[in-house]
Amino acid sequence: MPINVPKQLPARAILEKENIFLMEKNRATTQDIRPLKILILNLMPDKERTETQLLRLLSNSPLQVSVDFIHTETYQSKNVRKSHLEKFYQTFSEIKDQRYDGMIITGAPVEHFDFEEVDYWDELVEIMEWTKEHVTSTLNICWGAQAALYYHYGITKTMRKEKISGIYSHKLVRPTNKLVRGINDEFKIPHSRHTDSDYVAVEKHDQLTILDSSDQVGPLLIVSNDEKNVMITGHIEYDADTLLREYQRDLAKGLDIHAPSNYFPDNDQKKQPVNHWRSEAYLIFSNWLNYFVYQETPFTW
């Protein structure tokens, strides 16, 4: 997928080294197709790394994509340069009069709080309500998925006794769903979280469909029947070393935490972790872009 991103965005140099197809704005405007407009609400602390991960996955289809980033107005991240936000990000109030073909709402390190206790919850509620009329389909990741399940469908979350961290196997239970076309019957995905949504309530909800199962971590993919919302409970966007960096961060904080499960080759922490989920991640993103966004969105809003 040719993806149109700002020339000076730090993620661009990384993606160009990986031979990702990026496009200059002047070339994009001369093509006789309308690019898909994708809005990303980036709630992750390491915004630049998350930008790279998401843009990489948005890049792998024939569709042209134009991306806008927004950050919260009601909470200022302490882990990103102010100059970076000012240069590459907008706020919701600046884009709320526009319409977008797709939107991505990322995870966030706020699982220990009730939803209403999160500093920017009211702002997120306003954004999620806005998506109903202004976005064709929204991809919600990890805590973003839990927030979407709670706000749109009344599904609560609970704390786990210990953090899920590692690579876990999933089995498809709805292999004919458009979102999982081309994906193996069994696949492995990273998870990193302290909470679970009420999956029994999800299964009983008449507006939601679960696409896979895992005895250890629950489903990865939950889709609303109108395809307006896709919930991804894990982190398919993670790099091979992301769980390692999180583990090292938590150890440095003195937390009592186990090493990521099924992660280090031969359970040897001296060995470099391997990415076992790249193909599934690319397929899920490209299927979402094609079937849930491109095939459904109007040419003109």
TrEMBL record:
<dbReference type="InterPro" id="IPR033752">
    <property type="entry name" value="MetA_family"/>
</dbReference>
<dbReference type="Pfam" id="PF04204">
    <property type="entry name" value="HTS"/>
</dbReference>
<dbReference type="InterPro" id="IPR029062">
    <property type="entry name" value="Class_I_gatase-like"/>
</dbReference>
<keyword id="KW-0486">Methionine biosynthesis</keyword>
<protein>
    <recommendedName>
        <fullName>Homoserine O-acetyltransferase</fullName>
        <ecNumber>2.3.1.31</ecNumber>
    </recommendedName>
</protein>
<keyword id="KW-0012">Acyltransferase</keyword>
<feature type="binding site">
    <location>
        <position position="249"/>
    </location>
    <ligand>
        <name>substrate</name>
    </ligand>
</feature>
<feature type="active site" description="Proton acceptor">
    <location>
        <position position="235"/>
    </location>
</feature>
<comment type="similarity">
    <text>Belongs to the MetA family.</text>
</comment>
<keyword id="KW-0028">Amino-acid biosynthesis</keyword>
<keyword id="KW-0963">Cytoplasm</keyword>
<keyword id="KW-0808">Transferase</keyword>
<feature type="site" description="Important for substrate specificity">
    <location>
        <position position="192"/>
    </location>
</feature>
<feature type="binding site">
    <location>
        <position position="192"/>
    </location>
    <ligand>
        <name>substrate</name>
    </ligand>
</feature>
<feature type="active site">
    <location>
        <position position="237"/>
    </location>
</feature>
<feature type="site" description="Important for acyl-CoA specificity">
    <location>
        <position position="111"/>
    </location>
</feature>
<feature type="binding site">
    <location>
        <position position="163"/>
    </location>
    <ligand>
        <name>substrate</name>
    </ligand>
</feature>
<comment type="function">
    <text>Transfers an acetyl group from acetyl-CoA to L-homoserine, forming acetyl-L-homoserine.</text>
</comment>
<dbReference type="InterPro" id="IPR005697">
    <property type="entry name" value="HST_MetA"/>
</dbReference>
<comment type="pathway">
    <text>Amino-acid biosynthesis; L-methionine biosynthesis via de novo pathway; O-acetyl-L-homoserine from L-homoserine: step 1/1.</text>
</comment>
<feature type="active site" description="Acyl-thioester intermediate">
    <location>
        <position position="142"/>
    </location>
</feature>
